[in-house]
Specification:
The complex is a heterodimer of chains A (792) and B (262).
Chain A: H1 15-20, E1 36-42, E2 48-53, H2 56-59, E3 64-69, E4 105-106, E5 112-118, H3 121-133, E6 135-139, H4 146-151, E7 165-171, H5 176-185, E8 188-196, E9 208-214, E10 219-224, H6 229-241, E11 248-251, H7 267-279, E12 283-286, H8 289-295, E13 302-310, E14 316-328, E15 355-364, H9 378-396, H10 400-407, E16 416-417, E17 423-424, H11 429-439, H12 445-454, E18 458-467, H13 475-481, E19 489-495, E20 501-505, H14 514-526, E21 533-536, H15 554-580, E22 588-591, E23 594-597, E24 603-605, H16 606-614, E25 629-634, E26 643-652, E27 659-669, H17 676-696, E28 726-729, H18 749-768, H19 782-791
Parallel strand pairs in A: 1-12, 10-11, 14-15, 20-21, 27-28
Antiparallel strand pairs in A: 1-5, 2-4, 2-6, 3-5, 7-15, 8-13, 9-10, 9-12, 13-14, 16-17, 18-26, 19-20, 19-25, 22-23, 23-24, 26-27
Chain B: E1 5-7, H1 12-18, E2 24-27, H2 33-38, E3 46-49, E4 59-62, E5 65-69, H3 74-80, H4 86-92, H5 98-101, H6 106-112, H7 119-126, E6 129-132, E7 136-138, H8 139-142, E8 157-163, E9 167-174, E10 181-190, E11 193-199, E12 207-208, H9 210-218, H10 243-261
Parallel strand pairs in B: 1-3, 2-3
Antiparallel strand pairs in B: 4-5, 5-8, 6-7, 6-8, 9-10, 10-11, 11-12
Classes of the chains: A alpha+beta (792), B alpha+beta (262).
Chain lengths: 792, 262
């Protein structure tokens, strides 16, 4: 019987009622008296020198209030990179300034070099067209291909960076020689060159921002589509515009999806604030879909060579990778962490491989910035590992299930220190693999394959056993790794005078379901109805200074802060109860919402205690402050390590190359589960995105740096017909050992584990059909499969 | 969008008159035109909506042909043509999504003549007659290349007359992103022979694959086209498929359409 209350109950999401009935309030829904409209002029060329921008005609147009160019922001700060990465030679990474508006040069199609503010949206659109016509940009050769960018020192994205290289990172550099030795003597080496395709995040709600300035107080307000309002406030206030943080409120109201793309601070946010100050009026901007394609931070975009050294029985001896990682034209806030510490540190997988070396060269190109996107570095690591392992199994004629099994870290080995710097606290990889084999009915595969064959289809089975590091993150560790911010989180629990509860959290919900799940946890801990708990998030004037939501951290970090604040409430409640019940504090116990004196029937409800705290007529004021509100900050001492086994079955139509995913089975270990329905939803969404990456999504810049796939006419999003009904199991649970909830995080797992399972299944199907194809790059589109078949 | 005037006449005659204004533009279901306007890629002075003209709507049987008003929605064709011309109804019912099918019209699709649209293949394979406010145009004369037709400026498709084949089927292979036809093949077996119309594939828009028509007219079976190879010359090559891939798909889909037609 599933629970019907509190922790572990499959509660329907309370926020969905407003989302599904059109009652959500998103940034663009807000209408503010006196509002004006910003429209950006964006570069049509990938690379060019701004020769002149003549604003005179534009300023004379009806309704136009102001024009801004890069010149207006040349003296304010740049949008900084959040992680300092050092190259193998010890040099710090190259950090070109990322201005609010492009100044001097434009560096990618969609790079904003000017903005027009007008009374109406149409007037602003007209004016931006005029301004674009009055702008002279000398086009320069576009730098698109990473290998060419590094090879040709004469053509530079940033004039001061000769080889277009941000850094050349080795992990762990001291292990390089040792790994080379292993490869020299290894009985077998499998090599695979692959592309981890660039993805456009495509949140359903485009980015939008409203800037306000209140001359009476000198206060600013930014309403924006953010996954982390405090971080955005820190960046725009302290780093870019120089506004004191206490004079700026950042509000992220309902946000329609982020997938990472709304973690970062963007220049549009600074522009609407600066313009609001200049005009003394609210300034609003909402991205058009084309702008989103061109200017949201994209994801992935790695070109990798991975080598696996092993013995003839498939025992892993070493992994070695060389990766070119595209960072785009500028450093987005977490762009340098994604290909390094979110990628290289996972390159041991769930395996007891003794030696690993990872080399990543991160390259500037004339393309949109690339940053963390659901999974962020971990999908890239998992894809490389799980694909090369599959290739090795085929080369040595070994069973891919057994090879993984024999290389797994076993349960008696935890805590386990990997050769790439992480300490896995707990896990049971054998258990999730067994579970996947069971619920995915691997036994029945051969019969299903035969049935497919009757219909002329090639059926294949693909496996991926994945691990990730999430619950990001221990500040002390990320600090050592180069992070410039802490990654704790915070929550305030306020028991109101009438006993209901407001919980202010640093995490931000933009689809995750925090309003439901966090309330379940608080209600469970305090023994009160879930409906008595309200979760408040997304407003820096209401919530404690938290770090927002990404890296599957909301529950494992902020959720734990919240439970610690609840613990403090209970501790203080005991003190108040001891006074009211005339008992010793040590004799007070708390259970099911009641404080009672041990061995008596004397008790006070949480509501009575709260009332006493706010109406302290009879209250121990000499020893206790009134009020019942507690804040806790929590910084974990390790990452969490969810892991699992994914099975994918596909049918390939050998005549057309079309791949249909027939089934997808997930056996995950997320530790303890707070709400199984929400967990299933997260896995469904993540796997859907993973199938999208594997089969559909292709971000293509041509040689001139034009984004060919700049709309849904050419950028293929996965649709319902592209995904199967998922089988999701999370019954294998090894609770996280270092947080009191025992939770690990589940938001990114599906996107991390699924792409290699899909591609492995396609390759398996082709081989079973006698077509010896060793690899097809993602997206595994019909045309690519057909072409691979022709060339086999 | 740029600003424009908007009129919604009730008769074909009034619509024709309204379209005489300089830079006037007819608006059917708007499935192509509205996105074009939103991107500021067109700047008409006046949009003449054809959605208020009752005489341009409906599906009716006329002997051995089906006559469909130019302003008839895809969803209506999907529903009302089913009993008379199931292959056509199936084609209409698989265009876009429900929102598209309840705005888009057959006349709009044929007037636009998108090289990847479904309807042109049905009109060409059926040997349809495109009826306008001023004349009748045989489908063989009507389609003149990508986004190009025999229509004169201001001319309106009032109806389409489609002879009903003895057997027919349309098979579409979807472009992964837009879900338009990467290649679509409409096979129609008429008393006088087989017509095979291919959409999605050619730089010249919809065309007839005459080699397949000859083979199938002699022997209407998938085996008859097995050895045939469509020429890749002048076929579309883009991110979603090379010309060779499209040529290959033409053969595969033609055989499948023949099988589906029974």
């Amino acid at each position: 019987m599933p629970k019907d209350f509190g922790i572990g109950a499959p509660q329907k999401r309370r926020e969905d009622i407003r989302f599904l009935t059109g009652r959500g309030v998103y940034t663009d829904d807000l209408k503010i008296a006196g509002q004006t409209y910003a429209v950006f002029c964006r570069s049509q060329v990938a690379h060019g020198r701004i020769v002149s921008i003549d604003t005179a005609a534009t300023l004379a147009m009806p309704g136009v209030l102001a024009v801004f160019t890069g010149e207006d922001f040349k003296d304010v700060g740049g949008n900084p990179a959040g992680w300092l990465i050092k190259s193998r030679n010890g040099e710090a990474m190259r950090e070109p300034k990322r201005p609010v508006l492009a100044h001097g040069k434009v560096r990618h199609v969609g790079d904003a070099y000017a903005a027009v503010i007008a009374e109406s949206y149409q007037q602003a659109k007209d004016a931006a067209e005029q301004l674009a016509a009055d702008t002279v940009i000398d086009e320069l050769p576009a730098i698109v291909d990473m290998a060419a960018a590094v090879a040709d020192a004469s053509n530079r994205v940033h004039d001061e960076i000769p080889d277009n290289l941000c850094f050349d990172w080795g992990w762990i550099e001291d292990n390089r020689a040792k790994v080379e030795e292993v490869f020299k003597t290894a009985p077998h080496v499998t090599t695979l060159e692959l592309v981890n395709n660039r993805l456009v995040p495509n949140a359903m709600e485009p980015r939008a921002s409203i800037g306000e300035y209140f001359p009476g107080t000198g206060d600013y307000k930014l309403t924006t589509t953010s996954q982390n309002p405090h971080l955005t406030r820190l960046l725009v206030a302290a780093f870019v515009l120089g506004i004191p943080e206490n004079k700026l409120t950042v509000v992220a109201p309902d946000v329609g999806g982020g997938f990472g793309s709304k973690i970062y601070h963007y220049g549009e946010e600074a522009l609407v604030l600066a313009a609001a100050k200049k005009l003394g009026r609210p300034v609003r901007w909402t991205a058009e879909r084309t702008e989103s394609f061109l200017s949201d931070a994209h994801g992935r975009d790695h070109v990798t060579k991975i080598e696996l050294a092993c013995d003839k029985q498939g025992n892993f001896l070493a992994f070695r990778t060389e990766t070119l990682a595209n960072v785009g034209a500028y450093l987005s806030n977490f762009s340098t962490a994604t290909p390094t510490f979110l990628h290289g540190t996972l390159m041991a997988g769930p395996y007891k491989v003794p030696a690993v070396y990872v080399n990543v060269k991160t390259v500037f190109t004339n393309t949109a910035p690339v940053d963390a996107y659901r999974g962020a570095g971990r999908p890239e690591a998992t894809f490389s590992l799980e694909r090369v392992i599959d290739k090795m199994c085929r080369e040595l004629n070994l069973d891919p299930f057994e090879v993984r099994r024999k290389n797994f870290i076993t349960t008696d080995m935890f805590p386990y220190t990997t050769p790439v710097g992480l300490v896995y606290d707990t896990g049971n990889y054998q258990a999730t693999l067994d579970k996947a084999i069971e619920v995915g009915d691997v036994k029945g595969f051969e019969a299903r394959r035969a049935e497919s064959a009757k219909r002329g289809k090639l059926r294949g089975l693909g496996l991926s056993t994945w691990i990730e590091a999430c619950g990001i993150a221990p500040s002390h560790l990320v600090g050592v790794l180069g992070s410039r911010v802490g990654l704790y989180d915070a929550a305030t629990v306020r028991v109101n005078a009438t006993g209901n509860i407001s919980v202010m959290v640093g995490a931000h919900s933009h689809g995750q379901g925090h309003e439901t799940v966090f309330a379940q946890i608080v209600a469970d801990k305090l023994g009160i109805p879930e409906s008595s708990v309200e979760i408040v998030h997304g407003d820096t004037s209401k919530i404690p200074f938290g770090m927002g939501s990404y890296g599957s951290r909301s529950l494992a970090v902020c959720g734990v802060a919240m439970t610690k604040a609840v613990d403090k409430i209970v501790a203080k409640g005991k003190k108040i109860a001891a006074h009211m019940l005339e008992a010793s504090e040590a004799d007070i116990s708390f259970e099911n919402g009641k404080f009672s004196v041990a061995g008596t029937d004397k008790a006070k409800t949480l509501g009575e205690i709260a009332f006493s705290a706010y109406v302290p007529h009879n209250y121990p004021l000499e020893t206790l402050e009134p009020g019942l509100e507690e804040t806790a900050f929590y910084d974990p001492n390790n990452f969490t390590y969810p892991a699992g086994a994914y099975l994918c079955e596909v049918e390939v139509d050998p005549e057309t190359g079309k791949v249909q995913v027939c089934s997808f089975t997930c056996a995950d270990d997320f530790g303890n589960i707070m709400n199984p329905m929400v967990v299933e939803g997260q896995v469904h969404g993540g796997v859907g995105q993973g199938i999208g990456q594997a089969l559909c999504e292709n971000t293509h810049y041509d040689e001139n740096g034009q984004l060919v796939t700049g709309s849904y006419m050419d950028y293929a999003m996965p649709r319902a017909s592209d995904v199967p009904f998922y089988t999701v199991d999370y019954s294998c649970q090894t609770p996280c050992t270092h947080n009191p909830l025992g939770v690990k995080g589940c938001g990114e797992a599906g996107a991390i584990g699924s792409p290699p399972a899909v591609v492995n299944a396609v390759i398996d199907a082709l081989h079973r059909g006698g077509i010896k194809v060793s690899h097809i790059d993602m997206p595994v589109s019909p045309a690519r499969v057909w072409s691979a078949i022709q060339n086999a | 969008m740029y600003a424009f005037d908007f009129v919604r006449p009730k008769t074909v005659a009034d619509a024709v008159k309204a379209l005489q204004a300089e830079d006037a533009q007819a608006l059917g279901g708007g499935q192509t035109l509205i996105p074009t306007l939103k991107q500021r890629l067109a700047q008409p002075s006046v949009l003449v909506s054809l959605t208020g003209i009752d005489e341009m709507k409906g599906v009716c049987r006329d002997g051995d042909a089906l006559v469909i008003g130019g302003g008839t929605l895809h969803a209506t064709v999907a529903r009302e043509a089913r009993a008379h011309y199931p292959a056509l109804a199936a084609l209409a019912g698989n265009i876009g999504d429900p929102a598209v099918r309840n705005r888009g019209t057959i006349g709009g699709s044929l007037a636009n003549n998108d090289p990847s649209a479904c309807y042109p293949s049905a009109a060409l394979a059926s040997g349809a007659t495109i009826v306008t406010n001023s004349r009748k145009i045989a489908a063989d004369d009507y389609f003149q290349g990508m986004f190009t037709t025999a229509l004169e400026p201001g001319e309106i498709i009032t109806s389409v007359r489609l002879p009903i084949p003895q057997k027919a089927a349309y098979v579409k292979f979807e472009q992964p992103a837009s879900r338009f036809a990467l290649v679509g093949v409409f096979v129609a077996k008429h008393a006088g022979g087989v017509r095979v119309a291919v959409t999605g594939a050619s730089n010249n828009g919809v065309f007839r694959w005459t080699e397949a028509e000859a083979a199938l007219s002699a022997n209407f079976s998938a085996a008859a086209v097995k050895g045939l190879k469509a020429s890749a010359a002048d076929l579309i090559a883009d991110l979603h498929g090379t010309a060779a891939y499209r040529a290959h798909l033409i053969g595969v889909l033609t055989a499948r359409a023949v099988t589906a037609a029974g």
